[in-house]
Amino acid sequence: TVAKRIAEVIADSFPLKVRGIHMINEPVLFHPVFAIITKFLSDKIKERVHMHGHNYQTSLRKHFPVQILPPEYGGQGPTYEELCQEWTNFVLQSEKELLELSLVT
After folding, report:
1. Most distant CA atoms of the chain, gap in Å
2. CA distance 46 to 43
């Protein structure tokens, strides 16, 4: 089924250790869809998915230090725009290494 395939992607397709998936402003219709998908997820993965909804500023602070959250998310860290620029610069400066990693089979 589609729900099972989505669950497999969430659980098996990330080449890194996922410590948490945090969603903010998720649509109301996402909750029943995700309820179907969670039937196919391990308890460990289920515990790592956090939906913060529209009141995300308060709930995000329960998971992240206020010093690292952008002001747009109720924190005191760099702005969202600054963080995006930092990541863009990192990717551009690391282009050669990232391309080499993508070719590893």
Report:
1. 43
2. 5
